[in-house]
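Input (HPSE2 protein):
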Amino acid sequence: SELIRGFLLSGMPCPSSCPPGLLALMAPGLALMATFSLPSQAGDRRALPVEKPPGVKGRTLILLDVNTKSPVRIISENFLSLQLDPSIIHDGWLDFLRAGLQLRWAPPAVRCGAAAAWRRWDGQKAFSLLGKSGGRAGLAISLFSFPFAVDIVRSDIALDKQKGCKIAQHPDIMLELQREKAAQMHLVLLKEQFSNTYSNLTLTARSLDKLYNFADCSGLHLIFALNALRRNPNNSWNSSNALSLLKYSASKKYNISWELGNEPNNYRTLMGRSVNGSQLGKDYTQLRSLLQLIRTYSRAHLYGPNIGRPRKNVIAFLEGFMKVAGGTVDAVTWQHYYIDGRVAKVTDFLKTRLLDTLSDQIRKIQKVVNTYTPGKKIWLEGVGTTPAGGMNNLSDSFAAGFLWLNTLGLLASQGIDVVVRHSFLDHGHNHLVDQNFNPLPDYWLSLLYKRLIGPKVLAIHVAGLQRKPRPGRVIRDKLRIYAHCTSYHNHNYVRGSITLYIINLHRSRKKIKLAGTLRDKIVHQYLLQPYGKDGLHSKSVQLNGQPLAMVDDGTLPELKPRPLRAGRTLVIPPLTMSFYVVKNVNALACRYR
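Output:
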């Protein structure tokens, strides 16, 4: 439970009515969420002859074993992160975010061992949060195109400190008025996206104080992305505004990590002139020099370049950057959105070709990074269905979960250290909660992931997964299986337990028999299915047949597993996502951190 607490809370602008439990689940465990296993493509796949019951199609028995001796990957405990839309500066959610900062703290049993989280605020409307278990949390802000106003230096930060970070209470009428204001802002933002013209936004010192106070009171670490669009006549970065912000933050002794800009490969579209990778590398080197001149930030972390989808020109941009500044950044960052167009249908989320596009991009990024700085950490610092806020009744539906869980699995299995989900709450449809702060399907999925999944990724061995492909035809896996050590922070399971994560994209149920070290062990099942008549379009979820919903504004439901007797075959229903905790395996890879 400690893992889960930080995931939601750390990233959520929330009124006083916002459920504390809802936030609490998510804060500490953000990073733990992404600990998945190697794709099921690995391993032996001998077809096993199995007798099929009459009238049942495609129930081929699958034999599954896991290598429990040593992990194949160990990812960051901050693996899973969130974004929160910075439009809250425009639409007024910032004050509600401050009001809800205490809601992150759940009851002592949940709070115990609280995880840290990182957040990032960028000028393309992204505010992200990573959970880090067992440490101080973190918050990151990126002002990709926002100037910083230094003329407003007085704020209510001292008053907030005197209050001891208490929750401000807002009448229900204020929340209703805020929702109306946010709805109007939603239309403005959509217009800006379609016209590709964005209004300026100035982050005042007062707003920065509120944000930092929120992070500090919530136990988070702030990562701030500075404005990279301010340019000198020779196209070099004009750091004067950034220096003002750095000095102001240092005067307040704010503990912050830094970035510079967002999707620099698209600067021509935004400001009419481009910045190449080499120039941005020089800009990062300049920023590192500025940080070293300020004692407070002489050892601060620096991340970048946060490029867009790695097409040919973007790869060339990254190569230019790495040549100049590969050793300057602490992690290399990029973004991925699956669907470019604004039109899609629910069956798109079931296409394995779409799910697999990320794997190719990971390899491209890793090739460049390992060429110039072998072993450098890589972050996917922005991921969603589309870059334009998602699609209504699709990006926020049960079907989108297939894409999200597979993303976590691929990234973890291929060694990506951190992933930033777009987003927790915004004006679009990629979010985890709606405007009433009701959890959407991906929220419940993320919550379970954080509670059950640890950072150690295990190799799996599968037999009977699929038939041999026809000549000239590629058969892609519709049954995706990952394995991790169970989270150390989940005290319901002893160390040495293993958690399987399974996506079944088939329209028939599949049967899995656990073998080897997993044979004859008691298993706890967490099966997620859509709830209601809308099917895959549903925005509600059932766990083991029981609908998931907040008990009240401050209480999460109990996420009860379904115990399966030792040796029982796992039956995976069609078009579902599920977690299986194999208890008391005493796996050598999972006994110690």
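The chain has 16 helices and 25 strands.
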